[in-house]
Fold:
Amino acid sequence: MRLFRSILALMLIASAAPSAVLGWALLRHSRGAIDARSALAAEIVALVLAAALSAWFARKLVQPVNECVRGALEIARGRFGQQVRVTVRNEIGELAYTFNHMSRELESYDRENRRLIAELEAGYLATIRSLASAIDAKDPSTRGHTQRVSELAVEIGRELGSPEKDLKALAYGGLLHDIGKIGIPEAILHKASALADGERQLMRAHPTIGSEILRGITFLEPALPGVRSHHERWDGQGYPDGLAGEAIPLVARIVNAADTYDACTSVRPYQPTMTSEAAIAIMMDLRGVQIDPTVCDALIRVVRRRTSEQEQAASARTVCHA
Structure:
């Protein structure tokens, strides 16, 4: 708008000045009232025409520039590939042509970068799954545990309205929360009876070992709290750092709840498996003691929805076979 006003002012001055000089000269040399009125009318008409033509030319000059500015703003917002509609055959038209070419190239680079990032993430995920498999190989009694914790943690995160980046941290944190068990002797991992004090201290080292294993891997940094702090308790009696309440990262609070629920409902050397309702009763006992109450409530909603869907699917299969 400022450019339009500047160009309009310059064109008005350039076109109106000669008209004003000509009109002044006509008025000065007019020999009667009629001549004076005619000269004045001609001067007014000339000025009006000058103003109208100046506005038209200014708009024609500014419109392509505004179109280029609009396209540049779209590029700045990340909308690559935007094209500007400029058909004038002058320097501004050449600028628009160059801009459109640049926009297409940026769109191509952006598409290629997205493809490469997707491939990298797929490779990262494959690496993570390999690490999770290494945990399962170390302790066969927990086979599939890390995958189930990961899936349940993501569902709890969705139930709580967590953003996509936090859901990724939950997926990775759930898969890797027990990676530190690689450093725990198998005799301790497989022991069916209660652990001795020294053995318990070794077992309690696995969150710290896990976080050290993963430290420095940039894309896993958001998931590190789920590895280091998944045994912290809401009441502050957990380990390794004795964090309490909301001082415990949310990722860790969610992984803690998912880990506890899956431990209750899967076969372990030290306990029989539980039904989902029996596990929910345990979770309610731990609500506000070990587990964040809000996270616990979200987990229970997720589990009951899962159970309802499974019952409906089983009912549908029964009807189909009947």
